[in-house]
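[job 4417] fold queue: 2 targets
>>> target A
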Amino acid sequence: MYLLAGEGVVVRVSPFSQRQRLSTAVALTRWLVANGFPATDPIDVPQPVAHESYVVTFWRHYPQPANRVPPTGQLGSLLHTLHSLPSPPVALPGYQPLASFTIAVESSTYLSPDQVSWLMERGQELLHAYGELDFPLGHGHIHGDAYPGNTLWDGQAVRLGDWDEAAVGPREIDLANTFQGVRFGRTSEDLDAFSARYGYDIRRWPSLPVLCGIRDLHTLGSFIRRADRGETVAAEQLSYRIETLRSTDTQARWGAA
């Protein structure tokens, strides 16, 4: 990712394999912005642009104030609005839980055979449980990776960014990620505010732990890829997360790396 400060543009460089996903993200966010939803705004140029083994997209830059992140409740409001919109005229893929995680685990050069075996088994357990769920909020277009870290200030307003995982799926997916964030220090006050602004408290739904478990594994994907590249700090955090998952320590605090 690169910032063209003079132009107010963020340039994202991704593997060519992500071309279709990024084309969808650009088309979707253009439609959302045109319909008044505060998504991060793609620059009005033909994109994505393919170059050799990469694909490039261009986005408006939103300078962020120091030490002031959008409140968690703002995400609840954004998701309530998003889920209330009519279906977009963009072909979205069906939500596939743990698809990228499974690829990362199976192709990893860092994970031990024992870790691979446990992670794959745990993933299958969660996928089986997911297949048995009933979703009271129904299915529709979802962000797919909605959590407070993907919100950005735009002056005094808040925008929702990072649309690469947009899909059609259960709306509960967009809510559960915020609740899995207790592993990173999210407070009950944050969760209360999020629920109030969305208009539904997913904590009343007994199947929330299944989605939080799926999110736990999903968050390992980037750490696996970074550990494969030899990043020591990411490898240490990855090992710690796997240890806490294997010991079923739901209170363990996870860190960023």
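>>> target B
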Amino acid sequence: MQTIYTNEHLRRALYSIYTAQFHAIRSYPEGFTKADATRMLTSLMGARPWSWRVVGVTRAALDLFAANDFKRPPHQLQRGHKQDRSSTAQALYLDIAEPMTLVQFFEFFLDRDMTVIMTNEENKHRPDGAFPDYLSIDPMLGLFPSGTLVGWQHRKQEIKFLRELHAAQSPR
């Protein structure tokens, strides 16, 4: 999970792909849409252990975990990005004249790649774009690493963490 912060070789390799994508889009802008930029970014930075870092869980999601013995209930929970991926791709590829520096790229991307585990309904319906309230999770704990693109690994340590977090919440 920490490799994206500490492995300079990995960071330089990913950055070189980002800059190649950036220049390809700039050299032929009529050939690339915002959706293309989003797919490029997702392909480059998604489905890695450090992607879509979980920084919180909503109370509704935590209650759903509790109702399922803290195992992941199928097709009921999602990781919702605090900043949508399409606006991140737009900012990285389309809104600037030159690619960000390596440091800027990772600071910007990692800040906007944070997610919160929430119910499907909470992720779909955000009145006025408001992000739901959530209980914070320290991303440096390395919990809920990406599995498949939209899925996450739900191991014994995640179950234990969720059980303890639920127990620590005051009765409602």
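[job 4417] complete. Note on B: Residues 3-168 form one domain.
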